[in-house]
Amino acid sequence: MSAYSGFTKTSYGAQGGDDSGGFFAGGSQQGSQGGAGGKSYQDESLRPVTIKQILDAEEAYAGADFKIDGSPVTQITFVGQIRKIQPQPTNITLNIDDGTGMIEVKKWIDVDKQDDADAGFEL
After folding, report:
1. Nearest Cα residue to 85 out of 109, 59, 104, 108
2. CA-to-CA distance for 20 and 122, rounded, in angstroms?
3. 78 close to 50: Cβ distance less than 8 angstroms
4. Residue 33 CB-density burial (10 A; 0-12 exposed, 13-18 middle, 19+ buried)
5. 104: helix, coil or strand?
6. Could you give the CA distance from residue 86 to residue 105 in angstroms, rounded to a whole number?
7. What is d(CA 1, CA 41) in angstroms, rounded to the nearest whole number?
8. Which of 9, 32, 36, 100 has its CA 20 to 30 A from that of 88?
């Protein structure tokens, strides 16, 4: 190991806590995290919710992101039982119940791209 005795710290910011490499064990990281006013990746994550949480979601003003439990959400997922199906020429309306509430969901059908053999929806 005496061959490494001439090791010196570099001047480009790779100083580790104990001179063992570029790992920052306990010090502060240099640079900034995210930009001001931008959305974080957490805002874009897929969040599992209940129907009650969807129905209780708040919108601060028209066009604002909805908030569930005080956090903005843009993509959600939920699991429930289909209680009612209403097929129509331009959409299929489903009433879904998950035990916490019931919600109406619409699946829109693109009539220009619809093939008679494929209704675009399967049960």
Report:
1. 104
2. 58
3. yes
4. exposed
5. strand
6. 10
7. 44
8. 100
Return the CA Rg of the chain. 26
Q: What's this model's pTM, rounded to 2 decimal places?
A: 0.57
Compute the distance between CA of residue 60 and CA of residue 51 in angstroms, rounded to an integer.
Answer: 20
- Beta carbons within 10 angstroms of residue 94's beta carbon: 19
Which residues partner with 48 through β-bridges? Answer: 77
Structure tokens at 106: 């619409």
The segments of the chain whose pLDDT lies below 70 read 1-43, 114-123
Instruction: Please report where in the chains the tokens 């640079």 appear, as a residue.
Output: 31
Which pLDDT does position 63 carry in this prediction? 87
Give the whole-angstrom CA distance, residue 22 versus residue 96.
52
